[in-house]
Amino acid sequence: MTASTTDPEKAAKGPMLAADGTPLKKSLSRALRVQKLRALALVAPLLIFVLVTFIAPIADMLFRSVENQIVSDTMPRTTKALGDWDGTGLPPEVVFEDAYYDLFVAAERKEHTRLGSRLNYELTGASSLFRKSGRGLDELGEVYQDQFKDLDKNWDEAQPWAEMMGSDDWLAKEAAWEKGERLPKFELRDGVDELLPRTAEQYAAFATFTHNDDRKSLLKEEPWSAVHTALYQDLAANDYSGYSGPHADMLKAADTLVASPDFQTLPFKDGFGEIDKDWLEPGIWRTLKLYAPKYTSGYFLNSVDMKLTPEGVEARPQNERIYIMLFKRTLFMSLVITCSCILLGYPVAYILSNLPSRTANLLMILVLLPFWTSLLVRTSAWKIMLQQQGVINDVLVWIGLVSDDARLTMINNQFGTIVAMTHILLPFMILPMYSVMSTIPKTYVRAAKSLGATDWTTFWRVYFPQSVPGIGAGSILVFILAIGYYITPEIVGGTTGTFISNRIAYHISTSLNWGLAAALGSILLAVVLLLYWAYDRIVGIDNVKLG
Amino acid sequence: MNRTKTLLATTALTVAAGAVSAEDMANSMTIVSWGGAYQNSQLKAYAEPYAAMHPEVSISWDESSAEAVAKLRAMNEAGNITWDLVDVEAADSIRLCDEGLAMEVDVDEMLAPGEDGSSAEDDFGDSLISDCFIPQIVFSTTVGYRTDMVGDTPPSDICAIFDLETYPGKRSLNKRPPANMEWALLCDGVAKEDIYDVLATPEGQDRALAKLGTIKDQTIWWTAGADTPQLLADGEVVMGSTYNGRLFSAIAEQNQPIGMLWDAEMLDFDGWVIPEGLPEDRLARVLDFVKFATDTQRLADQAAYISYGPARASSAPLVGQHAELGIDMAPHMPTDPANATNVFVTQYAFWSDYRDDIDAKFQAWLAQ
User: What family does the database annotate (chain A) (predicted)?
Assistant: First the structure.
């Protein structure tokens, strides 16, 4: 675009113009916009990096704390049907029917065990119940499959089924399909979904699975037994004497068979009972109903020692409560660690900032040295120092301060965690303190003294207030690092020195209960933000300086 | 350069005659294991001989088995499986199978038949505890003690753990419930065959915890298998539970004053799983490797480097001597008849159901 073509008349009317003739306002805002864009372009790489690698995964992880789609995705019909059930006794037969069809497909896709492990977090035993049922459901359908097969072996053949259920168009395409090509999308024959509604639905589900998961032709694969079960239900419900579509004789014969008193049937409820008697207990159904919604508060409730029940929210029994206690312990111990870092770090930082720079630099290396050692090595070293047969105890016994059979227990408890973590986090306290202290002019101290202040007054009234921003910065760093630590507490914490983060790690890597881990993590994050807010209110975040 | 490669490839083809055509197989493979002596035994017994037959294949190792379940799930969600073969404990293989993260294995088709002529399925027998699991070794969780700290009557019974009078001093036990709960009930007078029935009830769980409560303040709870041997060596504990291979190595390789019990050892399996969703060429390579690495001879060879028993019945007679110490390894196998007089076989179905529940109670109990 050209900006220099100007109309002198127009320019005369307009307000102030830039050198090239465009209005000054416009020209200025353009320049500003370009500047802003350039600034944005400069930060864009980092911004995108942080968004993609940090913010997005955290948001995704936190989202898992409420996400619960697996139940309704795996058992869509059942969860819907359970909505109408009042939750007392056993659900009606129709729920068992829906559960049969849902689980059958889920088992073929090997998704039922995933649901089982999900529900096992809420109901002990769900895991093996679902695993077992995946195998057992086949037998339920075989009752019908076998009887139809004995009547006419075409009922166990792929081709007649496909001809009965599929449209002519689709049949032609399916017949022409060759390996390696895309399979033609299955289409139901016109009217079959009204004629044989359940069978059509189940056959379509079978068709989708065979095409998408197995990648096989429906002319080669005989349908699974759920289709036969559905066929029995249709035949029992309707009259097919007037049917004249493909394989009319076969269907009519089957209709007669179903109507005969010899035909064996098995109610869905009984079938489930045969797989496992737990299906005839209300427990599993109540759990399914409770966790049917796509989003659940269950994980958050679990992480504050409560649980979701059909009667509402209730507290867990005393012997299962752990998380509230761990949250409190984590906060308390992080606070203790922060305080001991201040106590130990302040004198060091003070000396460092008052020494000639050559000595200070040498000592600084000693402060930084632990940074260059592996965290595991440092933690394990504390084990050797603190254990009962360790260095410190040996020295104490040798001096005679402690008798040999009463050695101090200094590790695998809170004390061990506090000692090891204070040591590990100390540099994070010393460094900000040092950089703040080294900016305090020494003349202030001299001035105070020359005006007659004692050493203590000089320190307390003049020096210390100026070093507070360093303490603030160090405390925030140490506290926030401590609250999320888990390797050190795991190694030296024993049973009384472990943090909430150890449970989060357990649920992420061992129990695979990521929902609960996410809920615990969200709470921890919220607590940290809350404390930060309180800190800002009380101390003021402007009073924090890193140098 | 190119000629060397072709030459190598041709040699490999000749050696691997009868296998699937080598061109369809990927030439690199990432194997995940536990690191340490155990991974080394796999390297020596499986990977090095395989690499000698197939010089074109490069194998890289990842010591991530402890976090394998979580990492496989994350890889699966990201749609980028970078592992080809993963060594996991049997209980984890059930979890991975349930979650659809591990591939189901047709044992007779994919694995070599036993050298004694039995089919692969018969040869592996009870060790095939999940549809996705390819067993390698039998190991056991058992108890070791300081020979110089137990007086003249070294323990011979698992209940010595709970006997603070005869064996005063600290103990070390696993920070997870399996094995601890069974031992507690056994020593509280529950008959062995009833233990899991009792443990399935809340009262039974409380009973086990109450029994463990009698030694709670004398117990250090470990999280890594190396902890107990270290604690024993330092004299921190008088006895403690760990894996039998760790005790063997402390006793035979490091000459520590440690003895071990085989009484009520908890037998467990460790083996391979193949991640679900590998591309065809990588899958072909993995299957070729696994078939070789789990044949009768290879499993027997592994016992020369570590005292874990081969998962195949047909491998047991072929177990020879320790590769460096030259001692017979058969008497150090957890499955040796002399050792296996009183064993628990880990009840995987039970623990897959009750693990979350009992672990919650156990951790709450520990923290109190």
Answer: Belongs to the binding-protein-dependent transport system permease family. CysTW subfamily.
**Does A121 sit within 8 Å of B356, measured CB to CB?**
yes
Supply the pLDDT for residue B13: 39
Contact A490 B357 (CB under 8 A): no
- Class at the top of the CATH hierarchy for domain A323-543: mainly alpha
When scoring B350, B353, B355 by the number of chain A Cβ atoms within 10 A, the one with the most, hence best to mutate, is B353
CA distances from B204 to B114, B182, B213 (A): 42, 10, 14
Domain boundaries, chain B: 2-132+269-332, 139-264+342-367
Tokens 């536990």 sit at which residue? B34
pTM: predicted TM-score of the whole model, two decimal places? 0.89
HSE at residue B260, side-chain half, CA atoms within 13 A, is 27
What number is the average pLDDT over the span A216-245?
Answer: 90
pLDDT tens digits, residue range B211-269?
999 999 999 999 888 899 999 999 999 999 999 999 999 999 999 999 999 999 999 99
Partner residue opposite A127 with nearest CB, options B66, B98, B220:
B98
Pick B2-132+269-332's CATH classification: 3.40.190.10, 3.40.50.10540, 3.40.50.10860, 3.40.630.40: 3.40.190.10
Contact B93, B102 (CB under 8 A): yes
> What ranges do the domains of chain A cover?
17-63, 73-290, 323-543
Output the DSSP codes for A473-504.
Answer: HHHHHHHHHHHT--HHHHHH-TTTS--HHHHH
What lies within 8 Å, CB to CB, of B355 at 6+ separation is: A511, B91, B177, B178
Integer Rg of chain B from CA: 22
Range B139-264+342-367 has CATH code 4.10.320.10 = no
User: What whole-number distance in Å separates Cα of residue A381 and Cα of residue A201?
Assistant: 66
Strand partners, B240: B144, B172
Nearest CA in chain A to B235: A389
By three-state DSSP, how is residue B146 classified? Answer: strand
Using CB atoms within 10 Å of the CB of residue A172, give its burial: 0 to 12 exposed, 13 to 18 middle, 19+ buried. exposed
The residue type found at A107 is A
Tell whether A297 lies on the interface with B, counting CB pairs under 8 A. Answer: no
CB B272 within 8 A of CB B290: yes
Residues near A140 by Cβ (< 8 Å), separated by ≥ 6? Answer: A100, A225, A229, A266, A268, A271, A272, A274, A275
| Residue pair B302/B41 in contact by the 8 Å Cβ criterion | yes
